[in-house]
Amino acid sequence: MMIREKLKDFTAFNILQLACELLIVLVVVVLFTRLLGQTKHYDTVPIREGWEIEVSSREAGSEEFHNTIYREQSLDTFKLERAIHRGEVVTMRNIIPENAPEQATLMFQSFQSVVEVYLNGEQVYSYGKDLFEKKKMVGGALQHIRLMDQNAGDELEIRLTAGDDHAFYSVSQVDLVDAARDMAMLLRKNIFIFVVAVFLFVLGVELPVLGIVFHFFRQEYERLLLIGMLAISMGGWSLCNSRLIQFFSSDFAWNTMIEYILLYTAPIPVMRLVDASFDGKNRKAWRKYLVYGITLALVVFLIASIVLHIFNVVHICRTLHVYHYICIFGIIGGLIGTYRPFREMGNSEKTLYFGIIVMIAVSAIDLVRFAMMATFGTSYAFVRFSALPVGTLIFIILLIMGYLFYVYDAFLMQNEREHLQKKAYQDVLTGLYNRAYCEMEFEKLLSCDKYSIISIDVNGLKRINDNLGHAAGDLLIKSFGEILKEAFSDYGTCVRMGGDEFVVIVRGGNKRELARRVIRMVRLEQDKSETLDFNIRAAYGEASNEEVRGNPIDPEKVYKLADQRMYEMKRENHKKDVLKSDAVGVVPVVEV
Fold first, then answer.
1. Residue 8 domain-assigned?
2. In the beta sheet, which residues pair with residue 458?
3. Do 229 and 89 have their domain in common?
4. Which of 85, 99, 287, 318 has the fewest CB atoms lying closer than 10 Å?
């Protein structure tokens, strides 16, 4: 019954936590829906047709540039012949349409490129030139450039200079947006990703805090910290990848670096989660070391990428292909290292494996998307949005479900273990601790500065057994156990040594309070005796470690001193009868 009550509390806690998460998401959706309600489709004027695109490229090993011009191109279908490398330039020219907003913002994606924008031959915007000259990473961004008023009919030129090799494979879509609603437009196009990212980020912050506050790094709650780490990584990456991070930071190079760091961090908690979930399952050593090796490789790769980037040796964006290879090897190695037949898995492990399958499928879809973007450009809406945030959300939900299964099983095992342990140290008749527990407590008393031991013997057990039966004798012992609990349970440790012998161990305390507790015990004996067919009488003796010599002081000596004083009291009170004169079929006999 107690276990069921605890599980009920545990379930209630998780339902409350889930309700809080949903409430946060609901508030975010409501707030931004109200904001986006002000943005209409006609606030955006796409410029897709009639582009003149000039590509200034050079052959491998050559310093001479070769210019190729493509006229009357559509951005929906235009594709570069190959990836643009560092120093090569793509120039896009067009006329701003007549239906352009009076106060317009020019919006397009830039990928690791220096960006220059001209109106009628006059430069109105420049980004990344100083970074390019210092050979630093330029970064990617959603460029939103405020144009001058009344730009309809003006000549627009966008010049993109690649800041790294393989900087981009295609040119971005170009839009003109009402300047008063440009950021709202960005939100409207990415509202789903934004909500998922915020949810993941809030969840990622909350789970480690809960794990630390409530359980302070207990091993079974390591998973909360790992799930939180994964949620923060992918939530932050989603904000960076969708360029929503620009609401909070306008440093494009910094945003790009954070995007890659978060992406490279995400597999580390995943590998640790997989290993922790299948640890202790009689795995062979080589499988365990394989998982450890992959995790270590991911950590080393992350650190190396950051260090090389900081010292401007290799930009972090240039290590993406290495990351892909490590992830592929990690997925295969992780599955091999933790493989067990499905029928042998518990609910937690099955849920985790299903989540891994979902994550592998989503990662494969994202790799296909990446390849399509390189091949066909950004003309298809599909390639402009990553499925990783949604896949990660599903994966984390499954992780949390698996974690709840794990905690549920661990909770039952812990309660069963505590129950068995309690049973091993508990006296069946009285519910007090038994002699084995007392011996264990005596060992702990060796390091205790001050303590007292009370030795107690219940009078007349044999006479009650002989005259009223063993059931009455058991009732005597049980009743005295209840008296002892009521008098000392909040002050000392109550023990039944066996038969009619009891012990109370009191750590610290003072003589006056101890005397009050003993007087209370005697009064409870009198009160309890009024409801029974016999009187409850007990002899007792008390001794403290301050009365015994030794270094350290042996608790057995203190107990023996208390026992001697108990027998002295027993001899003084030996004529007090435990049987009542009105007991049925009993002739009172004075105990000699």
1. no
2. 538
3. no
4. 99
